[in-house]
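To the structural biology subgroup,

Please find below the input and predicted structure for Histidine kinase/HSP90-like ATPase domain-containing protein, which we are adding to the shared reference set this quarter. The sequence is reproduced verbatim from the submission form. If anyone notices a discrepancy with their own records, reply to this email rather than editing the shared folder directly, so we keep one authoritative version.
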Amino acid sequence: MSADTVNPIPLYASSLRLTAVPTAVGCSRMFVRHTLKLWQLEDHAETATLIMSELVTNAVKASGITEPEPKSWQITAEHVIGIQLRAIEASLYVEVWDRTDAAPVGKNPDLETEGGRGLLLVEQLAKRWDVYRPRVGGKVVWAELSLGLPLELRPFEHTPLLLPSGIRAPQGPVEGQARTALLDVLLKTTTEAMVAVHVIRET
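Predicted structure (tokenized):
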């Protein structure tokens, strides 16, 4: 097969590194709505926002500061999470990295229990979800949503996302680790998708 016969498949991807504090949850929702509007995939924003919110909540609890209003001196360069949206073929992926190795555990809370329903919600809303272990450490928890139809590339103008001051993770070793981990999962899964599409087209 020559290079002239290769038909690349459409791919949209956007990522962000945030300080791992409770306000990151609201900012992650802003990121999803903003990004899917740019990609003209607003029909999927509600579900993707709910899933992102749950995954970021878990990531902050695992590796960040859970006090509602932490003091500035409590926040260090290690308090970082990474979030990513990726659309390829007929799927939208919601991906969240944190620096801990412990996989999230689903719970079965009763009706009177507050909280603990995050992964149950993700299981109900997503086509599937799992945990990816990047080479640089930590974990990426991801969920796949169906777009219904294969993605079509559309021209759009990039508009920067305005976030509150201090919520973007400062550059440093952990921020770099988050960036590399999200790129790792992006390259791996995109390559797998391209191979799958090629196999289908050849059969």
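Summary notes: The CA atoms of residues 12 and 84 lie 11 Å apart. The domain at 8-202 is CATH 3.30.565.10 (Heat Shock Protein 90).

Regards,
Lab coordination
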